[in-house]
């Protein structure tokens, strides 16, 4: 600034020093105040998310999440077979149309049970595999309905303290072994490793899936919780893979082109009704070149119609309608003998091009729904056309089992960041981890552990690493994570999509080992730790184990909470001794309800 005579003038700084300093002081004070509010609110939120904060235990490193000791009460004895999302007590709230009431309907948060599900009176440690395939303790699954209603079909029979499983079924009176022998004659691909994964809709007590285990085929046995009482629980008690489910109004929780074979043995699914929408779902989950096997009405109607309370004309009409519908969605009759008919899903794109004609039914799906979308996704009356660019998804293009297990699937490149290289790295990583797990938990790899769940897998690496052990693994992919389940199926393993903010589709006490890898780190922003752990307790068998691989941030909080569930846990180092990650080896104790004798 210049004076009027042109000489520089010294500015008077004292005129603005005071207000600026005052402003700085006020701003600092305000930010301190607001910061205090924000921080206290954030601390309150974190504390509430894990049930209140406490001091760090003396002598240990500081862990960000700490919780007070908590003790969960016992549920009443009526909850011994509680399945929260398929609870018969809530059926009346939902429609009967297409049996939609048997689908998943989870209770709202204010109805969630915060208690430990008790075992039945007289519960014993399950009989070990392979003996368990043929017998189980009656007190572990104390339900007589199937025994009384299906005794003439030899599903099971009660002798003393046990249920025995003679391998009978509605459509295999000579035993499941003879039934599958005939099936193998009709489908040679069952013998040479081409067919590895299967799904059995309406599985009964899973005798078909149990027999296929001895033939190198891994089956997901599927049945709803209905008047048959505990079909899936019987299957899992026997050590056979199974899950609660029904084809109704929602897609099954599997990606498209997953299974090598699908089976229905008089499963009472009305395949030709509602525009064939149930068959369209089988078509979606069956890979190109895969097989659909049907025994029961209307197959072999010429001989069987008298026993079906119908007329031969009606059964012929039903069979013709079924054949026409299958042809329209690109199935061809592959083979047929006696009570078994086999259709094959075509892999030739020329058939699917015909679906472009708007006058044809069913039409091609073009509503924008992802083919692999399968968590509460409504069924569509249209054909999900296989991607013609995916050449190696076809059954005859996959390596045969067991080479298939470690070959990088084509669909790994569909996963963000996925590649053959990342798949091989993951495969090698889990071999090292499984070796370390067996040092920490010697029961892994023995007959003490049969039913295993990997609660948040990527490519099924843990399951692949223990494939030679006497166990099977249900691989679970989160509905909120990248959908890698197609890769799991392409390598010849099984699994399902699930959201761990909800209860899993199984009965209590059905798994010997639960494994999770960073589940709480990935899902704690959505799912409250307490409810995930209570769900783990529900589905884990008494004396069963959990391997919890988690960040150090959550490890101590998890260990504290499991004490309130009557688990014993110890903290171990990872195979590389990484400080930021720990392994909890936990065991659930066997206890009995105070209400029981």
TrEMBL record:
Q: Name one GO molecular function term.
A: methyltransferase activity
Q: What is the organism field in this record?
A: Solanum bulbocastanum
**Per UniProt, which keywords does this protein have?**
Glycoprotein, Membrane, Methyltransferase, Signal-anchor, Transferase, Transmembrane, Transmembrane helix
Q: Where in the cell is it found?
A: Endomembrane system; Membrane
What GO terms in the biological process aspect are recorded for it?
methylation
Family as reported in the entry's similarity comment: Belongs to the methyltransferase superfamily.
- Residue intervals passing through the bilayer: 20-38
Kind of enzyme, top EC level? transferase
Predominant localisation class:
membrane
Q: Which InterPro entries match?
A: Put_SAM_MeTrfase (IPR004159), SAM-dependent_MTases_sf (IPR029063)
Q: Does the keyword Cytoplasm apply?
A: no
Q: Which EC number(s) are documented for this chain? A: 2.1.1.-
This chain belongs to the protein called Methyltransferase
Any one cellular-component term (Gene Ontology): endosome
Q: How does it sit in the membrane?
A: Single-pass type II membrane protein
